[in-house]
């Protein structure tokens, strides 16, 4: 007999295939971009190639986290390793913040000390990068909507926006010769990535701190549970996320008659699954003894 519940017997289904595809795409283009930068003498292209290489490392981390999330529960990790994806998302978001800081400093320096830019080479290579990053973004976007996936997608979108900025800058430089457009667009893209990275960090931190999922109203869940036939009230109600798409709930259920517990438990579990998508439910029944504590709990009470 296993001490680990059947609901934890398997790992979380967060496939690593999209991330592996992404690693191949980013490493291939990083090599092409670095070669083009070396031939043309463009430090901008070689720098972006280094950024792409860092993205491949981020995708590798995401793939490893996705593999860990599929590992079955054990006596050491009774909930499984689904939260590995949350840690990967936090690491990737933090890395993006570092990259944004470095790019912003480089853009400011370029504004203060303008340098000549090979507009034609930038335009050609950036156009190729746009197609590759767009393909990868579509692959990741159609994957599972986990924090791990969002973290990897954040890196790809950063490259995608960078390609758009490079194409725009290359075009403007070719037509007008105005080189400040390159660092100005870089700063604009950095601002967009900064907002997305901070949002991802906030979302991942909320999961790590076992906050109530943002799409769930805890008091409303408690009231709906208290309305189930045979339930007097609900207290000590807790709802949290084990990972991006795995929500858990625990609560004490006050009953008029403990003999009715089994059918009431089944109704509660079915209700929570169908209405809120909460699959892992732990409920503790308690007998109602009026006057024992001097307080008659309300039907809608939740702690």
Question: What does it look like?
Answer:
By secondary structure, the chain is mainly alpha-helical. It folds into 2 domains: 203 residues, Cation efflux protein transmembrane domain (Alpha-lytic protease prodomain-like, Up-down Bundle), CATH 1.20.1510.10; 70 residues, Cation efflux protein, cytoplasmic domain (Alpha-Beta Plaits). 61% of the residues lie in helices and 10% in strands. It is built from 8 helices and 3 strands, in the order αααααααββαβ. It has a 3-stranded mixed sheet with strand order 1-2-3. A hairpin with a 2-residue loop joins β1 and β2. α2 runs antiparallel to α3, α2 runs antiparallel to α5 and α4 packs antiparallel against α5. The longest helix is centred in the middle third of the chain and has 30 residues. The two termini are 34 Å apart. The N terminus and C terminus are likely disordered.
In short:
The protein has helices at 17-40, 43-69, 84-112, 119-141, 147-176, 181-208, 218-226, 261-276, and strands spanning 231-243, 246-255, 280-287.
